[in-house]
Design goal:
Elements lengths: L1 E2 L9 H6 L10 H17 L5 E5 L3 H12 L3 E6 L2 H12 L3 E6 L8 H10 L5 E5 L1 E2 L4 E2 L2 H10 L3 E5 L11 H4 L3 E5 L11 E5 L1 H9 L9 H11 L8 H16 L3 H21 L15 E5 L6 H10 L2 E2 L1 E2 L8 E5 L6 H14 L2
Parallel strand pairs: 1-12, 3-4, 3-5, 5-8, 8-9
Antiparallel strand pairs: 2-10, 6-7, 9-10, 11-14, 13-14
Bound molecules: pyridoxal-5'-phosphate (PLP).
Length: about 350
């Protein structure tokens, strides 16, 4: 199968190979060096002076971590798809009050609506934004939204799970307090590792937080990282080796801008191919995601049918998500995909969408 999934995604052979190395203790010098190098590479990639922590979980673990460490009572969740909804559920299931800014599926969150809501809800402590809403293939205007959050002096959590690594994310310039992703998305590493940048202010909140638990306690991540370049539990060493390798490859290939250009080129090709088949993307124009194409199903065929027909042809796409299961199918543009794979996939789609 050629993977055009939305995670886990295909990984480069060199990255998979790196994972097969013999294990070593997470208290050893070998591990400390790996940890230090990976974290420093990530800090450069994210253009941040903040701490970057490695979590032995998927991205949802960090979501829960932000809520438990940094929200005392109330947060605001911006929702235009399933992952924004998940953030709100995580907040509520941890006993927090959640205000929702919810817009119709396919529409972006606007800075004006966020400004209005924050003006009328001064007791909100933190705002959660899904940068790239994977379920609908939409990129929210994060730099503009971040300005609004900072104008109101709130903490900013960014779910960058399907964005970081494929799209620019300037942590310090945009004022992101916690920005996180999972290994199995744009960095093209197998699942089992999450990573997040965590600001000074987020750490201060964590210091004050009561009942934040132990496993996702940001202050413990800070302590163990500063004292010994390690973690307070056993980390997923193979995934960290793989991530470090992928970051090294990005640097060797000419840096992150080159990587973003590759993502953009592949998505351009996918979009052109879709258009040539008479198909269209689901989100409102101007906000289409560079990492996930959410395609409206052709007349008379369900999205699920297109997905199945593509599997028969050797291509694993992604099904529509939630309410869009029948109406759409998704083409992932994350991880190890070559330009020639895109051309082959589009050829198969021309038959599958008939
Ligand atoms: C935008 C977004 N947020 C959160 C998640 C959840 O991440 P994980 O499955 O790594 O917990 C996903 C997974 O697809 C996602 O796309």
């Amino acid at each position: 199968m050629k993977l055009f999934t939305v995670g886990p995604v295909a990984c480069r052979p060199e990255v998979l190979e790196e994972m097969s190395s013999q294990m070593f203790s997470h208290r050893s010098e070998d591990y400390k060096e790996l940890h230090r190098e990976t974290v420093e590479r990530l800090r450069r990639f994210l253009e941040t002076e903040n701490q970057v922590f490695l979590f032995p979980s998927s991205g949802s673990g960090v979501m829960e971590g932000t809520v438990r460490n940094c929200v005392e009572r109330k947060m605001l969740c911006c929702i235009n798809g399933e992952f924004g909804k998940r953030y709100a559920r995580v907040g509520e299931s941890n006993g927090k009050e959640v205000e929702r800014l919810e817009v119709e599926l396919g529409k972006s969150i606007t800075p004006e609506s966020l400004d209005e809501l924050l003006s009328s809800s001064p007791d909100v402590e933190a705002v959660a934004i899904t940068y790239n809403e994977t379920s609908v293939g939409l990129l929210n205007p994060l730099p503009e939204l971040a300005k609004v959050v900072k104008k109101h002096g709130k903490l900013l959590f960014v779910d960058a799970v399907s964005a970081m690594g494929g799209v620019e994310l300037k942590v310090d310039e945009w004022g992101i307090d916690v920005g996180f992703t999972s290994s199995q998305k744009c960095f093209g590493v197998p699942p089992g590792l999450a990573l997040a940048s965590v600001s000074e202010e987020a750490l201060k909140r964590s210091e004050r937080a009561k009942d934040k638990g132990w496993y996702f306690d940001f202050k413990l991540y800070e302590k163990y990282q500063q004292e010994g370049s390690s973690t307070h539990m056993t980390p997923p060493i193979p995934q960290i080796l793989a991530l470090n390798k992928e970051l090294e490859i990005i640097e060797q290939e000419g840096g992150k801008q080159k990587r973003f250009k590759l993502y953009s080129e592949r998505m351009q090709k996918i979009k052109q191919g879709i258009k040539a088949l008479g198909l269209s993307l689901f989100p409102e124009p101007g906000y289409e995601s560079p990492t996930v194409g959410c395609v409206n199903a052709p007349e008379g065929i369900s999205g699920l049918e297109v997905y199945e027909r593509m599997r028969e042809r050797g291509f694993e796409l992604a099904k529509g998500y939630g309410k869009l299961k029948e109406r759409t199918f998704r083409i992932g543009n994350m991880g190890y995909i070559r330009l020639e794979d895109v051309a082959e996939m589009l050829q198969a789609l021309a038959e599958a969408a008939k």
